[in-house]
Each structure stands twice: as structure tokens, then as C-alpha cells.
Amino acid sequence: MVPSVDDPNVEEMKARCRYCANLLTYKQGSSTSHLLRHKRSCTAIKANLQRLSVQSRLGFQPISASSGLPLQVPTNGFDQATVKELIAKMIAAHDYSFRMVEHEWFNALMKYMNPLYKQIGRKAIRAECLRVYKDEKEMLKAELKHVAYISLATNLWTSNQSISYICVVAHYIDKDWKMQTRVLSFTELDPPHTGHVIADAVFVCVAEWKLEKKIISITLDNASNSDGAVRDLMAMFDVRRGTSFDAKYFHVRCCAHIINLVVQDGTAYMTNLVSNLREIIKYFKKSLARLHKFTEICRVLGLEIGKHLCLDVCTRWSSTYKMINVAYPYRQAMKSYAISDANYKWEPSKQEWNLFKLIEPLLYAFACVATSFSTTSYPTSNIFYPHIVSIKKELRKAMVHQNQLYNDMGHKMMEKFNKYWEDTSNVMVIATFLDPRYKMKYVQWCFQQIYDEDKGKTELKDFKMELETLYEKFDAQIKQTSQRAGVSTSNASSMASSSMPPADSEFAAFLSATSAQPSKSSLRKTIWMMQMNQ
Asked: The dihedral of CA 344, 345, 350, 351: what is its sign?
């Protein structure tokens, strides 16, 4: 309804074109020929019909911001070079064969998607993969120029053709305060794999990327050749960087490898139980009839059928603990099954089951550590020390236990534990202290749990002095940098989430008991207050 042209006070019904917005005469029940004539002559309607006659292009959004997938289909038509580059990235990402581009059905698919596609040979796509690699390498070099500190991790690997390789990985924080990891080198390493050979391979990689002044630490396993490699690398960096190189925090031992070595020594007492359970589960899973029979025995004995029996993975201790823990409620059913099956001959003894129940708290602590390290997509240094404290607490309990077997097991595991852990730096403790969930009170509580009273006080005093030294060092660096840049600096903090270790429940009680003590936000004030309390 619009005002009439003849009388503005009177409203009349009009038809409005949705494309050009012109008003046309409209009377209910009258002819619509004039509307049809307007439809044929309206330029806006003709333009819309012209747009609809052209096939539109779909915009593809990436799965995530870091997926590297194209944001949209290019509007300038088909480009063979772009398709060739995308195929090269696909082959690299999914480990496809170069020969795939010559497969009949792959080319049939590509031709169907776009008839302008031209077949690519395996040699051509190999060259394209190398070109893409070089481009990506240059982009990573440009990114690493703006990174202040980089931590390295390296490991050796032998293929099934007995060819040895070394992999060097860089870990750093980018300009957006996000943790990043990049593989810098994956190359063949000729024998012998001595510390000198490993150190040379790592330093060549670092020099190629021009990162000599940015490396602050390196993580290796606990083999003797790794110790030799660290000594050689420290000497190389000391010559290259002089006083700016801090060797105290340079070598970070692989915590997962330490845990594995400790567990291997301790579980030697349970070899029979573990091997028998593996054979039992394999025996049951090979036949559905045996499995149904075992289930029926559980029902007759009134056992609750919960979790299913599962095999472990030898390289993951958490899976071995899970295998034993799940099988423990069915121990009586396994004993009864042996009466009805003459081929069943792996029944664990009562003493073996009792041993497992005795040392279960210690095994559970190790299982929690293994699970935390393996399930975290990017485990950071702040999550390690709380788990290490949980393990050491259980080992100290085992060392004073009345059961001689458990006592010997605790001493043997503690000996292996101290061999690799006592000579390490406080870098893990510092990382835990900087975690907003823990801070100084947690470190103080940990030292009370894992050390004797006198040693705990000494360790805490040394730790506070170490923090003060680090603070002075970085404070001087920041002031020097800000003076050169002529800008002010600001403090930033971030919290990383991870699974919490079992000992944290005990720490919560300690924290509530000491909550009346004042807390300071400043690192310097925190250290100063702790010193004053001494």
C-alpha cells in the first residue's frame, strides 16, 4: 500500500518489482499483462538471468587455520601448475608413491574433474616435490629468524634394511606465543654411531639452518654415546658463542626413556606373571568357543563381567599395567578354567597375584606417567616434575616396606632412577614453579616429600638462589633489548593444561593448610619472601 498520486491521503495497492523496485499498477482480479511486459523489458531481471546462466564456483574453507589447504577455488580458471603443486603436497603429506600420478584410474578421475588436466609423470612429480620442499624450507628459515630461543630433540632410528637415520626436531614459541615443532633434518647416519658422529651430524644441521646462536637445549636418550654427543656439542657451542652460551641447562634427558629403564629393572620380578597373562589372553582370543566358555565360568562363579581382557604393547608400560589390572578380578575364573582344558597351562600362581596386588600403587604411578606422556599431543616441561615426584614418593615407600621382595624391588628401581635423575639440572623444577597451578609452595612441598629434612632445606635454598640468578640474567637482557628498541616491555604468562598426577591430591591438603600465608605475584618478591622465612 502506497499513497495515491492524485490524493496523498488515500492509499492504493501497487505491485513492486523485486529486482528494480519500480511500482506497477495492481488491482485484484484485473489483468496482469502489464506485469508480464515489465518482466520482459526490465534490465535488472535480465541481468539476474544472465548471472544464473553462468556456473558459480564453490568456496572451500580449510579444516583448520593451520591445515595449509587452499582457502577457495581460484576464479581465474584451471591452472595446471597449481594442480601439480597440490598433488606434490598430497604425496608428501600422505606418503604416497610417485608412481600414483601414472595410475590409470587416478588420471581418469582427474580428467573427469577437469578435461584440461594433463597427465604428470613420476619423474616430474618427484621434481615438483623437491621444489615444494625447498620453498617450504625457505619459508621456515624466514620464520626462524624472528625466534629468540630454540630447543632441539634428536634420536636415532634403524630401518628394517639396517640403515640408520638421525632426526633433528626444533621446538620453539612463535610470535603468537604458540608452541611449534618442525623437523629440521632426517638424514642417513653412517656407522659407527659414536658421540662424535652424532654431535657432528647435529651441528651440521644447526649450521645449515644458521641457528647456532638460538639453541638453548637438546634432548636425547640416555645411551652412553648420547652423553658423548652432548659433551662435544657443548664444546662446539662454547667456541661459537662464548660467554652467551649457558651449558647448565643445555642437556635435557629424555624422561620417557628414564621411566622405561626404571620400569624394566623393577618388573623383572614380575616376568612370569606378565608372560603367562600374555599367553592366556592370546589363547582365549584365538577361539570364540574358549572365550565363551571362560565367560560362562565367570557367570557361574558370580564374577562381574566388566572390562574385556586385553593384550599389552611391550614398548608402553601403561598397557602392561592395564593388562594385569583388568585380568586381576578374573584370577579365580582362570584357575577354574584350567580344570576343564588340558591344553591350558599358563595359570599364574597365587604368589604372583599377591605380588601384583602388593606393588600395584608403584605400578600405577608409572602407568600414570606413561599415559600422560603418550596421550598429550605436545607434552611440555611443566608436566614432568609432578609425575616424577609421584614416582619417587612410591619408591621411597617401597624401600622401607616390610616385604623383602618389594623392598629389594624399590631399592633397585631407585638406584636406576638416581643414576639418570640426580645429576640433572633443575630445569624441570623451574618449569613447574612457573606453572600458575603450582608455584613455590608446590616446589617446597615436593622437596619435603622426596628428600630428608636437611637435604630438602639445602635443595630449596639452592633452588631459590638459582631462580634469583636466572631472574637477574633475563631482566638485564630485557632491559638491554628495550633500550636498543626504544620500547617498553610487558609481562606475559600462559597456562598449559595437562593431566594431573596422583600426588596433587596430597598437595591440595598441604596447600589448604598453608593458605593463610600471603602470596605475591612478582617472581622477585616470591623468592625474597621465601628467603626471609628461612
From this structure: negative
Q: What is the pTM of this model?
A: 0.66
Q: Is residue 167 part of a domain?
A: yes
112, amino acid identity: Y
Q: How far is residue 146 CA from its own chain's centroid?
A: 23
CA–CA distances in Å: residue 30 to residues 25, 27, 38, 157: 10, 5, 16, 87
Q: Examine residue 400 and state whether it is found in any structural domain, yes or no.
A: yes
Q: Are 151 and 348 in contact (CB under 8 A)?
A: no
Specify the amino acid at residue 29: G
Per the structure, the complete domain to which residue 197 belongs is given by: 146-253
User: What residues have CB less than 8 Å from 204, skipping those under 6 apart?
Assistant: none
Q: What is the pLDDT of residues 112-159, one digit of tens each?
A: 988 889 999 999 999 999 999 999 999 999 999 999 899 999 988 888
The model's pLDDT over 410-429, given as tens digits with 9 standing for 90+, comes to 888 888 888 777 665 688 88
Give every CB contact of residue 306 below 8 A, 6+ residues apart in sequence.
Answer: 329
Residues 453 and 339 in one domain: yes
Give Cα separations from 73 to 60, 82, 174, 332 (angstroms).
7, 11, 29, 64
Cα–Cα distance list, 350 to 65, 334, 335, 347, 356 (Å):
56, 12, 10, 9, 10
- Residue 277 placed within a domain: no
399 and 442 share one domain: yes
> 329 with 344, same domain?
yes
276 falls within a domain: no
Question: Final residue of a domain: which of 219, 253, 287?
Answer: 253
Instruction: State residue 520's pLDDT score.
Output: 45
